[in-house]
Amino acid sequence: MSDNPLFKRTIHRHDVPSRWLPEGSRPVRVYLPPGYQPWMSYPVVYCQDGEEFFNFGRIATHAQRLILEEDWDPFIVVGVDVNVKVRTSEYVPDGERYVPYTRFFAEELIPWAESQYPVRDVPEQRLLAGDSLGGAVSVSLALAYPDLFSRILSLSGAFYDPYMEQIRSAPSLERLSVWMIVGLQETEFATDRGTFDFVELNRKAEKLLREKGAQVLYSEKDGEHKWGFWQRELPEALSAFLGPEPRPLG
Q1: How many domains does the chain have?
Q2: Inside any domain, residue 169
Q3: Residue 72 lies in a domain
Q4: What is the residue range of the signal peptide feature (predicted)?
Q5: Would the CA dihedral through 233, 30, 139, 189 be positive or negative?
Q6: Does residue 7 carry a pLDDT above 70?
Q7: Residues whose CB is less than 8 angstroms from the CB of residue 85 and which lie 6 or more positions away in sequence, other chains included
Q8: What residues form DSSP beta bridges with 119?
Q9: Which residue from 186, 246, 177 is spatially nearest to 217, judged by alpha carbons?
């Protein structure tokens, strides 16, 4: 076993009970920072696609390094797993599992996390993170629960028409801060809803969010719709909200 502290990460696994989800519970994984103390309080990152964020995005490894080597204040990460077979149904607003999932997330997962761990309970200290549909449903959650969420990290968000309609219908989004990135090679990506130009989707979403008053930090870089791209960008994404000198979103 390596003595390198970067590899001595603390990750707990839980099944969070739910009255909303048909299965009655949902697996989550929780990263605790080095030096964790239960009497302290910590900012928290809530990730859609939790298993992928931990296994392919390596978010726990990134967090460990940023805290230990770059002197970031410690934070907790809560990853919410999803069954890929029903992922679209849970994440897209016209999916039959969307209401149960979003109600579970806001009304059951958040209270559970705040009762089990010393995560901070104000919107400015909660960060919603997601890739593709996970990025888009994170925005959707923030629109539906403005008292809970105001900070979003979106990696190549799949901003299909139902999400865009939600943004159009929303009141002022001046309280919302969104970090967005998309890969320039994502112009013809095949999904279960057809083939989409993700660059165009993200440009339109950025424009509409800004028109609604949201603070947006948007970028396009060479990259494909894959975790190899998103993993590289995670430290910069997190730094916009959690770094020693958070970047201003505008």
Answers
A1: 1
A2: yes
A3: yes
A4: none
A5: positive
A6: no
A7: none
A8: 42
A9: 177
CATH code, domain with 232: 3.40.50.1820
Token digits of residue 100: 């149960």
Q: For residue 1, name the pLDDT band (cuts at 50, 70, 90).
A: very low
pTM (2 d.p.): 0.95
Q: Which domain holds residue 222?
A: 5-242
Q: DSSP of the chain, one letter per residue?
A: ----GGG--EEEEEEEE-SSSTTSEEEEEEEE-TT--TTS-B-EEEESSHHHHHHTS-HHHHHHHHHHHS-PPP-EEEEE---GGGHHHHHSTTSTTHHHHHHHIIIIIHHHHHHHS-B--SGGGEEEEEETHHHHHHHHHHHH-TTT--EEEEES----HHHHHHHHHS---TT-EEEEEEETT-SSEEEBTEEE-HHHHHHHHHHHHHHTT-EEEEEEES--SSHHHHHHHHHHHHHHHHSSSPPPP-
Instruction: For residue 157, tell me if it sits in a domain.
Output: yes
Per the DSSP assignment, residues forming a β-bridge with 45 are 77, 127
Q: Residue 169 carries which side chain, given as an amino acid letter?
A: S
